[in-house]
Amino acid sequence: MLALVWTTQAQAREQVLVAVAANFAQVARALEPEFEARHDADIVLVVGATGQLYAQIRAGAPYQVFLAADQARPQRMETEGLAIKDSRRTYAVGQLALWSPDPARVIGPQSLQGDGFIAMANPDLAPYGTAAAQVLAQLQVETKGRLAMGQNVGQAFAMVATGNADLGFVAQSALGGQGGSHWLVPSDLHDPILQDAVLIQGAGEMAAAFLEFLSSVPARAVISKYGYEAVDG
Question: Known binder of ligand: residue 50?
């Protein structure tokens, strides 16, 4: 009887399918148990590049919440009627870093000069890639034959971590506990990486509760801990 009751209760927990940009995946995984401890629901995360996730939503993927790495796609979803009206909000401001596992490799913008492969996310798919491209243009870095392009900022990080690139533009949030050397890119070298979230048409009450949770004090503390500027909703 106890087993039957437990099974019934477990089945009653609602699942909230959340599409999350790759740069925010680590933070989302940390937020997941915080939310689940307060609500009768389970968060299911699907991680990818913002552009890819947006394309999946347009194709009918059953996500309920979209945590993008930019503002453009959530705004577009509002225009296209894919998002619930007035649900869009900025949940975090990302920070770009240039990183290498070599403790002596990155000392500042001058580390981009010379030879060596530079990893970055694809600017057509990922906002961190757009920011990286803006930095390279601002600093007039010669990149011909030097760029290693990932679909998202997580792949750019992996290229550097595995030695397939000498250094790369990554999310500062990915550097927690990492060794090596890095340069926190000044924000005046690229457009702000304002990350918006939105509820997708058909989202239920628990999805709305998760979006609201992102602006709570406990959630903002976690977001800040991982190297983002948290935003009070």
Answer: yes
